[in-house]
Amino acid sequence: MTQRTIARFYKDVSTAAEGDGYAVLLDGKPVKTPGRAAFVLPTSAFAEAVADEWRAQREQIDPVSMPLTGLVHAALDLVPHHRGKVIGHVQGFGRSDLLCYRAEAPSELALRQARLWDPWLVWVAEAHGVRLQTGTGVAFIEQPVDSGLALEKLVCALDDFQLAALDRAASLTGSIVLGLAMLDGRLRATDAFAAAHVDEEYQAETWGRDAASEARKAHLLAELAAAERVLHLLALREA
After folding, report:
1. Sequence-ordered list of residues with C-beta below 8 angstroms from that of 61, at least 6 positions apart, any chain
2. Of 121, 34, 19, whose CA–CA distance to 70 is shortest?
3. What is the pLDDT of residues 82-105, one digit of tens each?
4. CA neighbours closer than 13 Å in the CB half-sphere of residue 153
5. CB–CB of 9/34 below 8 Å?
6. Whose CB among 17, 18, 86, 230 lies 3.0–4.6 Å from 165's, allowing a Cys bridge?
7. Architecture of the domain defined by 81-236
8. Separation CA 40–CA 34 (nearest Å)
9. Mean of pLDDT values over 141-147
């Protein structure tokens, strides 16, 4: 659904310490989320990054151009009130991860999938004990119970901001494995996006590119880059 723009109603954007975090201020007044929650971020750098999105708006405020703000809204409005559902949504990718479903043909596509996907399946097994089975075709692959339990423990330990960002990354890539690699700072958004769209890229090389499809991919990559930036900004507080 298209998000509507609204007229810019402020002149100055700033940040200020607020309790244990940092608030974004519009003309000296604190921002509120759509759910009326206090718009307080865990670090000054995070608050400044979000403030920059507000500063960049011109005569109209375009939510599409504010992906960090959108993720903060999810972390402050959606996750606290529906945490169980969000966790369940993320875990769902562990039961049907994109990286587990391989093409039988053409051979070139199968080789590309293996080259881009296999290292991350090995990584997630070694780093997090999440060992996922792979197969060809579209038939459902039953994953080991132990892997599901390891994934549940991992996801439940995340804070609201981390969970919102991981949910966004997994949703955009179709893969909890790629999302976890981004969460751990092991995988850049551009590389995760390339891995997630290897099938689409192969088809584009074979049959030609479509302007509408390329524009859609650019928008999705921008959303994934925002999730990566949120995860990076959150990691800075632990450094």
Report:
1. 5, 6, 7, 8
2. 34
3. 999 999 999 999 999 999 999 999
4. 9
5. no
6. 230
7. Orthogonal Bundle (1.10)
8. 13
9. 96
